[in-house]
# Entry
Amino acid sequence: MTADTFLFWFLAFAIIAGALGVVLMTNPIHSALGLVLTMVSVAAIFVTLQAYFLAGVQLIVYAGAVMVLFVMVLMLFDLKNEIQAFSRGRIRGALKIGSVGILSGLIVGAFAKALIANQALGAKGSLASTASTAVGAIKPLAENLFFNHVFSFELLGVLLLVIAVGTVALSRSKGGTHDRN
Amino acid sequence: MTSMGTTGFEITVNLIKTVLVFLMMVQAVPILVWLERRGSAFIQNRFGPNRVGPLGLVQLLADAVKFLTKEDFVPEKGSRFMFYAAPVFALIPAAIAYMAIPMSVPLKLEGATFLIQGFEVNVGIVFVLGVSSLAAYTILMAGWGSGSKYSLMGAMRASAQIISYELALGLSIVGVILIYGTFNLTDMINAQHGALSFSMFGYTVSSAYLPNWGIFYQPIGMILFFAATFAESNRLPFDLAEGEAELVAGFHTEYGGFKMLMFFIGEYGHMMIASGLMATFFFGGYSIWNFTPQQVYEWLYGLVGSELLANILNTVVHFLSYNLKFAIFLWIFIWVRWTLPRFRYDQLMDIGWKTMLPWALANAMLTATLIFAGSYFIF
Amino acid sequence: MIETNIFTEITANHYLILSAVLFSIGMAGVLVRRNIIVLFMSIELMLNAVNISFVTFSHYFGKVDGQVMVFFVMTIAAAEAAVGLALAVAIFKRFKEVNIRFFEHLKG
# Structure
């Protein structure tokens, strides 16, 4: 068993464990820490897929800023164990889990059918093995982003500006959108 | 980032290097604590610890024995798991981030080249920034696990400060990335060898005495970066979160004994990353004034005569040069701590968002404009 | 017939099935949990699953467009998390309650 396979199975286990922790734990802070584990493991999965820059950005943006925000807000709320953490009612709960099961079964079934019928996606890196090392480099990513998608990139900047102004307006106690008077 | 290695030999060497760099960081902490206590004492016109051992050097060993024999307790209202987990997590981001910093010329023995860094990371800067931004979780877990309002408030303030100054930190490095055109730390150091020379607008500026270091290209970036790393490692003048007389002791109020020492190990770890990055970006890393490593190697070869010995001495000499710069920056961290007064929290946030962020943006824009104009308009 | 051993050779299908499982867990979280913050976290799980899927395809076809898409998805997810949390804080200040069951019968 090479290092690659061991790394994949270990990280997949960590991701699924973190995700189950998010959904199943009653204390919301434990859920948040489970999500941090998932985020860091997803960054490591990006590294095994040779997307190094995206792994770094995932760590900086998701694990370093968004999750810190989640954990801070949860600590401010100070909820101990919740009174009613999950959906009430057996039939409703069963219907919801059943719909999730159907969706995931459809997706996995589609992959299995493609694998048997097509064999199109073969072993790792086999389809474009010389190009895949170039994919990991940052320059092609930057060229594609700034030459082909520069308009969307600038729109992202405007979106972030709007979000920043809006968030400050929402949380001001005097003069914001949720002012008491 | 290359893989872990293809042969068993490579994998073993990589693992050993990882462990060695981690141990190096942990072993540097007692020296730093001694330096801080004696240095601060001399700044404040008093003696520091000078009873235990010569010059007080064994003081930290005595402190460690004292800490190890203290009672191990958990506050009643706190969360037990997080109270224990927070100090354990304190050193992990700092140690991982330090792996990416190159400390010397690669050692070339016959048949193998050993890199003198924990692990070679292709996207060096992004990796270091990403991993050291995980430090906010230590503080949050410590504040929450203590179960007291003062700890929680201190933790909120400290983590808000950390994520605010991450922005200024990242933007102040953009100028350096633009100039050297790479994220890789080794390539940046290689671009800083030799004497100062660059060409702009068709003229070539070169000097025989000054080295090609980053500080001559990015002075504003250096000041902003250095100031932002003070805030990232919660050092004075940005240490309101753990300031005595404001919040008792902030997020580590309820900690005693060895657990509190682990927090300080984490703080010194972040200081070490900051010093290492300062040396790498702006002061040439391991290079010695304006001599390239090849020139140093040839001088050593003329001195010693054997290739193997000259290679080893080359690596050692450059390692000492890196450590000298590293130690100077650590001393500056300690010096500033005991010289400047502390910022108030609203002043701190104002500086982070309203002063450093615009200056870093202006620096990045100015650098980009100058690089473009310098190569486009040839007079 | 599947000829390669699925445990020792990692193909694209492994990554895609991982992404599907993560997505399903996130979806189950959105449907089943009541706390509004845990709902947001489950949405982040779904977005991460989609990111894994994009990067997998980018790696296996050698094009970089998948990674550009991940860039955009990450930015928008971060922005949405910020606004969602600001709203949640405003709701908590007003009602002192973050259980969505409580808000089902609001009038006016």
